[in-house]
Amino acid sequence: MKRKRILFSIAAVLIMASAGIYFYYGFLFKEARNIAAESPDFSITAGKLLEEYNADPKKADALYLNKTIAITGTVTKETDSVITLENTVFCLFTRKIKEKKLDHKVTVKGKCIGYDELFQEVKLDQCILN
């Protein structure tokens, strides 16, 4: 009888461990997206994107949030890894930007992470210059 209890306990522990591993790798752990390899879901100007967010933030989020988008606009601010297009779109790059682009028209591809009401900017991350 004692032997059956021990075998049952071991089987229960193995089943629980297997379920935990399956849950972790199946649902929680996901590899990062490769935005550079993805084609953009939308191509839009910086001004038009801000207009859509100002008009209806929920509708704009439904369209753009977590999507890969290409945004065209003039660079108004820049640092080592951030470019701001037309003072309305904040683009965070994964690498340092080597070339200075201030006052140049560029197209940036990145993942839209939403609208920041405090700064009144649309935010993108994992950006690359097209």
From TrEMBL:
Residues passing through the membrane, by range: 6-25
Q: Which InterPro entries match?
A: Protein_unknown_function_OB
Give the keywords, sorted.
Answer: Membrane, Transmembrane, Transmembrane helix
Which Pfam families does the record cross-reference, listed alphabetically? tRNA_anti-like
Q: What is this protein called?
A: tRNA_anti-like
Organism equals: Flavobacterium cupreum
Taxonomy of origin reads: Bacteria, Pseudomonadati, Bacteroidota, Flavobacteriia, Flavobacteriales
